[in-house]
Design a protein that fits this description.
Layout: H1 3-13, H2 21-39, H3 46-60, H4 66-79, H5 85-90, H6 92-100, H7 110-125, H8 129-132, H9 135-147, H10 153-168, H11 180-192, H12 198-210, H13 217-229, H14 236-253
Helix pairs in contact: 2-3, 2-4, 3-4, 4-7, 6-7, 7-10, 9-10, 10-12, 11-13, 12-14
Length: about 250
């Protein structure tokens, strides 16, 4: 087990005596997982932590125990970056089905959503082009893009980081991301509604500004036209973001 991963786990173990309830829960869950790994005589490696947490997550699905679910998903957000891409591809459907349930804004808190977003980002980054053609992957990207315009700053920022990371790193050997059309249509929809909802338009422009990706050729002209229309709203900040986003779009096109 690599030293960075072990260091992260030790920091969590040390929180068992914390006065903060959620830190105690995270530490207690980790210790329980490690006890299970020891009892099963499994190798002490990220894959074993992942397998144990995934089993727990499936058992908790629909149980209504938010504290346990939150702790499991938080630990998954720590473990997943250390799990092999091949394993994340193998467990793709299972992971997406369970995680997507926690994207419901009405029932999820900020900390949980940030952990879910981190998990989804890691899992989706490991997928190949064929996985991205599946409806569950495309639907999840749309959900993440919707969260990137959320009114809660911490959720919005984390979702924007995840979407930007995903779209900027298409699965090889593709140059244009398999979900680029979904992204461009979402952006065009948000910008078309800029007059009615300037706040969502601003958040969308911030996302475009930080996303270095090749936009689909058949939608490139429409995207540029939509960006160039925004200064006519006579909102200085929107105009500034529109020009910055346009600069990123052209720079990414090479």
């Amino acid at each position: 087990m690599d030293s960075e991963f072990e260091h992260q786990l030790q920091k969590l173990r040390d929180k068992i005596g914390s006065k903060t309830p959620h830190q105690q829960q995270h530490a207690a869950m980790l210790l329980a997982v490690e006890e299970t790994i020891t009892e099963q005589k499994a190798a002490v490696e990220p894959a074993s932590y992942f397998a144990a947490l995934l089993t727990l997550m499936e058992q908790q699905s629909g149980s209504g125990s938010n504290a346990l679910s939150n702790a499991i998903i938080f630990l998954l957000s720590v473990v997943l970056p250390h799990v092999s891409a091949s394993m994340l591809r193998a467990k793709f459907t299972t992971m997406m089905a369970v995680l997507s349930q926690s994207l419901d804004l009405a029932s999820a808190d900020v900390a949980l959503l940030r952990s879910v977003i981190s998990c989804l980002e890691t899992v989706l980054l490991a997928q190949d082009a064929s996985s991205w053609r599946q409806p569950i992957a495309q639907g999840t990207l749309r959900s993440l893009m919707q969260l990137s315009t959320d009114s809660k700053p911490k959720i919005r920022k984390r979702a924007q980081e995840a979407v930007s990371s995903l779209l900027s790193r298409p699965p090889p050997p593709t140059a244009i991301h398999p979900a680029a059309h979904i992204a461009s249509r979402f952006v065009l929809e948000m910008l078309a509604n800029a007059k009615a909802d300037p706040q969502a338009a601003m958040h969308t422009l911030q996302l475009v500004k930080q996303t270095e990706m090749l936009w689909p050729a058949d939608e490139f002209e429409g995207l540029c036209a939509a960006l160039m229309q925004l200064p006519r709203l006579n909102t200085p900040y929107v105009a500034t973001l529109a020009f910055q986003a346009l600069e990123t779009v052209f720079a990414s096109a090479g």
